[in-house]
């Protein structure tokens, strides 16, 4: 154990041996760049622990990892309930924010109380626009249909005596997921308002889809149907027009995010096309199954 | 406060600034400086995390095996960041939503690894704590300067509020879209380094 240690002053590489190496194996610095370090090694030896031995390293890492994992699981376990509550409240806020009349009075209010006040029903439709499940708006909150299942959730809200249909949407932006809620008036055609959020769009550009002034307010009063067919909305370059489809201005500099919103609208709302078509036939939100079935076939194709 | 501690705290604000002198943490100063608000939030979070991880590493510095010291540092930083992020989610959900990706980005911030390796591994906890605070604030100052320039010329706003009057736009003024690109932040950093070294002649290399 009489080896000395030499540290390369350039890169910090530590050489063990009787004398400094001619060339540093890491950064090719000459021997003159090495300085002898003696105290750490000797200091440790006095304590009787060699901190550079393999077994010490292994035990050390194991201990560190066990401590850290314990810490993280304890923290996560303790905070889980609070976090879930926060997520639930936030989701309620997002749903309510899609209706402008509610969003304007949401600030500082208890989101859960407002959710209970305004949201009347939480149902699940199938592609034919029939109600397949009626869920409890509280107990089943956050219900997500299984992937590929023919199930499309729908919230029914009542604001100032008017029925609003709120549809959840999911899509992709430039960097990650985007999602939102769209509120439709009782005619199942006129957009009352939208809410968008995102995981990681560029601040100042794509992330502006969340902003009411810069983006969301434009959706109010737009129509997603044309002559009884579902056509969705287009998000276009500011000022551009399209035939037969109503448009909103995209965000300059955030083209991919804007297009992501457009795709999300088309794909997610497309699944509800049959439901939108029933507007004239059935006033009740729970539509009869029989008449809806006839319009299913052409509609599913158009929707996707 | 003795000279050494004072140096640890105040040095990083200018003469030993992590961004413009040590050139650490450039990646995140490009990513989060398009607007002032995220820049300030990121600066604060980094300050807290650097100070905390500096203290932890400094406390265990004599026991860390040399061959795995970077991994140990990384584990400590990642654990701290995760704990902070979990607490934010539980107690201050709105802030955690705003921070979203940034809090995770802190783990990859080179300032952390740089300070742990260069300072905390060889100094006592109190000095390391001050060094962490100093470097965090030095980093935050730079982020704020860059974000101020980028938001003002890139979107004509500060903290999201319009400061360039509408009449300018009507007269033909256009926001500089280039400012919104991360590459522009790099150019601004370079300009700051230039100005900084012109003022502090002793920092200039031969």
Automatic annotation (TrEMBL), chain B:
GO biological process entries: sodium ion transport
Keyword Ion transport: yes
One Pfam family it belongs to: Rnf-Nqr
GO cellular component, as recorded: endomembrane system; plasma membrane
Organism domain of life: Bacteria
Subcellular location per the Swiss-Prot or TrEMBL entry: Cell membrane; Endomembrane system
Reaction catalysis annotation: a ubiquinone + n Na(+)(in) + NADH + H(+) = a ubiquinol + n Na(+)(out) + NAD(+)
Keyword line: Cell inner membrane, Cell membrane, Ion transport, Membrane, NAD, Sodium, Sodium transport, Translocase, Transmembrane, Transmembrane helix, Transport, Ubiquinone
Signal sequence region: none
Any one GO molecular function term: oxidoreductase activity, acting on NAD(P)H, quinone or similar compound as acceptor
Role noted for this protein: NQR complex catalyzes the reduction of ubiquinone-1 to ubiquinol by two successive reactions, coupled with the transport of Na(+) ions from the cytoplasm to the periplasm. NqrA to NqrE are probably involved in the second step, the conversion of ubisemiquinone to ubiquinol.
Family affiliation: Belongs to the NqrDE/RnfAE family.
Protein name: Na(+)-translocating NADH-quinone reductase subunit D
Native source organism of the sequence: Candidatus Aphodosoma intestinipullorum
Lineage of the species this protein comes from: Bacteria, Pseudomonadati, Bacteroidota, Bacteroidia, Bacteroidales
Gene name as annotated: nqrD
């Amino acid at each position: 154990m009489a080896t000395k240690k030499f540290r390369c002053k350039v890169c910090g590489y530590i050489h063990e041996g009787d004398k400094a190496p001619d060339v540093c194996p890491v950064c090719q610095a000459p021997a003159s760049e090495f300085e002898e370090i003696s105290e750490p090694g000797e200091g440790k030896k006095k304590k009787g622990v060699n901190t550079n031995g393999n077994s010490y390293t292994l035990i050390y890492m194991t201990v560190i990892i066990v401590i850290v994992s314990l810490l993280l699981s304890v923290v996560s376990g303790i905070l889980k309930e609070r976090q879930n509550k926060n997520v639930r409240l936030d989701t309620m806020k997002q749903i309510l924010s899609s209706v402008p009349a509610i969003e304007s009075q949401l600030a500082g209010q208890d989101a859960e109380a407002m959710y209970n006040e305004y949201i009347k029903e939480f149902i699940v439709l199938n592609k034919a626009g029939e109600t397949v499940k009626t869920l409890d708006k509280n107990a089943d909150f956050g219900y997500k249909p299984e992937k590929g299942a023919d199930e499309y959730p729908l919230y029914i809200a009542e604001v100032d005596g008017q029925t609003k249909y709120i549809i959840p949407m999911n899509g992709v932006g430039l960097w990650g997921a985007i999602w939102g809620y769209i509120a439709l008036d009782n005619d199942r055609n006129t957009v009352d308002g939208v809410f968008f959020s995102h995981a990681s769009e560029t601040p100042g550009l794509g992330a502006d889809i969340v902003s009411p002034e810069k983006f969301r307010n434009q959706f109010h009063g737009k129509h997603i149907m044309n002559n009884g067919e579902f056509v969705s909305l287009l998000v276009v370059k500011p000022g551009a027009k399209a035939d037969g489809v109503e448009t909103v201005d995209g965000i300059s500099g955030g083209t991919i995010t804007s297009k992501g919103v457009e795709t999300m609208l088309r794909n997610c709302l497309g699944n509800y096309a049959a439901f939108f078509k029933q507007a004239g036939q059935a006033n009740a939100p729970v539509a009869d199954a029989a008449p809806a079935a006839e319009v299913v076939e052409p509609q599913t194709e158009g929707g996707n | 406060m003795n000279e050494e501690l004072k140096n640890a705290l105040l040095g990083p604000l200018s003469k030993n600034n992590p961004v413009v002198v040590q050139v650490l943490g450039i990646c995140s100063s490009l990513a989060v400086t398009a607007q002032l608000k995220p820049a300030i939030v990121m600066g604060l979070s980094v300050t807290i995390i650097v100070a905390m991880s500096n203290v932890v590493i400094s406390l265990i510095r004599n026991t860390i095996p040399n061959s795995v010291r970077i991994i140990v540092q990384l584990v400590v930083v990642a654990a701290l960041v995760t704990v902070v992020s979990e607490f934010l989610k539980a107690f201050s959900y709105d802030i955690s939503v705003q921070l979203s990706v940034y809090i995770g980005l802190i783990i990859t911030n080179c300032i952390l690894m740089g300070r742990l390796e260069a300072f905390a591994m060889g100094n006592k906890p109190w000095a390391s704590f001050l060094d962490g605070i100093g470097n965090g604030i030095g980093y935050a100052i730079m982020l704020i300067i860059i974000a101020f320039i980028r938001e003002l010329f890139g979107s004509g706003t500060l903290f999201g509020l319009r400061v360039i009057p509408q009449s300018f736009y009507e007269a033909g003024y256009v926001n500089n879209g280039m400012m919104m690109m991360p590459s522009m932040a790099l150019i601004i950093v370079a300009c700051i380094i230039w100005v900084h070294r012109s003022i502090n002649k002793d920092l200039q290399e031969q």
